Amino acid sequence: MTATLHRRELLQRRELLRTGAAILGGAMLPLASLPFGSAQAQGDSAYDFMVKDIVYHSVGGKQRLARLYQPAGTGPFPAVIQVHGGAWNEKDRTDGQNTALDLAEAGIVVLAIDFRNAPEAPYPASLQDINYGIRWLKAHAAEFGSSAGQVGAYGTSSGGHQILLAAIRPDDPRYRALPLADAPDMDAKLAFVVSGWGVLFPLERYKLAKAKGNDDLAKDHDRFFGSEATQIEATPALIIERGEKVYTPPALVFQGTKDQWTTVELAERFATDYRKAGGSLDLLLLDGARHTFLNEHPFEPNSVKALNTMIAFIKQHGSQRRAQQ
User: Fold this and answer.
1) What structural domains does the chain harbor?
2) What does 198-225 look like in DSSP terms, one character per residue?
3) Residues 6+ apart with CB under 8 A from 140
4) Whose CA, among 203, 211, 220, 254, lies 20 to 30 Å from 323?
């Protein structure tokens, strides 16, 4: 009964967030915070937290927003920057907010960022915004009850691809092109990285989209990457296989065995490459799950398993990095 009530309360929270986000979506900043009360799940305490939109960045004459999910208290909390999916062309910081709510309730700070999508700005503009966002969160982590050494990242689908690029290339001058005025020396190295159903090999999905006659998806690749050569250049596994110097924070990669756009074999190939490059990587394959499963069906067994694995991973590696500082 306790667990049932807990899930019902979470559903009510999500409806409140959806309604509040719709009401506040066109408002000028600062936006009002959306507070949420704590819940109990099988005797385990959950954190109070608040949700609010903030401006973290301005580029191209436009303010870029981030949605902050902040647990109550002084922490210290692990923190993640959340990178949305959308085939590099669509969606925004509200994508995957079910997971962000669960992470915040578990005592994890989440900063879900907007960034430039194609066709507004093709590769590597989004990587510049993500790299900047990582540095910004590290510089401001103490304000949210975290610390720079506890900051990791989580991305899904095309965001799962991009966050792995950001993780292994933190010092790439193309990605680091935007200066952070209030912390110019802050680096973009992550304490950990999590990729959910990431498009690990973009060119393979591009070929699959064409074979299936999915012209819209193929065009999304074209708008973002511009060429097949760029898709190859920006493939994390191929970067490692080419022998480029990479940074390899602890990684968790998860996806379903029935994912329509990335195969188990490709995930295993990336895991092998990452480990050979010196990184530790946990690969979680969810039997029968498809693309976007956690976002679309958050209470199904595969989604619960993925979420619990992610929370444990984040807390393990966030705490470890803080202890090493």
Assistant:
1) 2-324 (3.40.50.1820)
2) --S-HHHHHHHHHHTT-HHHHHHHHHHH
3) none
4) 254
pLDDT tens profile 27-79 = 323 334 444 433 323 234 688 899 999 999 998 789 999 999 999 988 899 99
- Residues 190, 314: contact at Cβ < 8 Å? no
DSSP string of 35-65, one letter each residue: EE---EETTEE---EEEEEEEEEEETTEEEE
**Mean pLDDT for the chain?**
88
**Residue 7, pLDDT above cutoff 90:** no
Q: Fill in the amino acid letter for 31.
A: L
pLDDT at position 10: 56
How does DSSP assign 254-271, residue by residue? EEETT-SSS-HHHHHHHH
Element (H, E) at 109: strand 109-113
Which residue has 């020396």 as its token pair? 185
Cα–Cα distance for residue pair 214/50, rounded to 1 Å: 40
Crossing angle of the two packed helices 301-324 and 97-105, in degrees rounded to 10: 50
Residue 13 — very low, low, confident or very high, per pLDDT cuts 50/70/90? low
CA distance 126 to 192: 20
The whole-number pLDDT of residue 46 equals 81
End-to-end C-alpha distance for the chain, whole angstroms: 42
Residue 315: count other Cβ atoms within 10 Å of its Cβ: 16
pLDDT tens-place string over residues 102-127: 999 999 999 999 999 999 999 999 99
Overall residue count recorded for the chain in this entry: 325
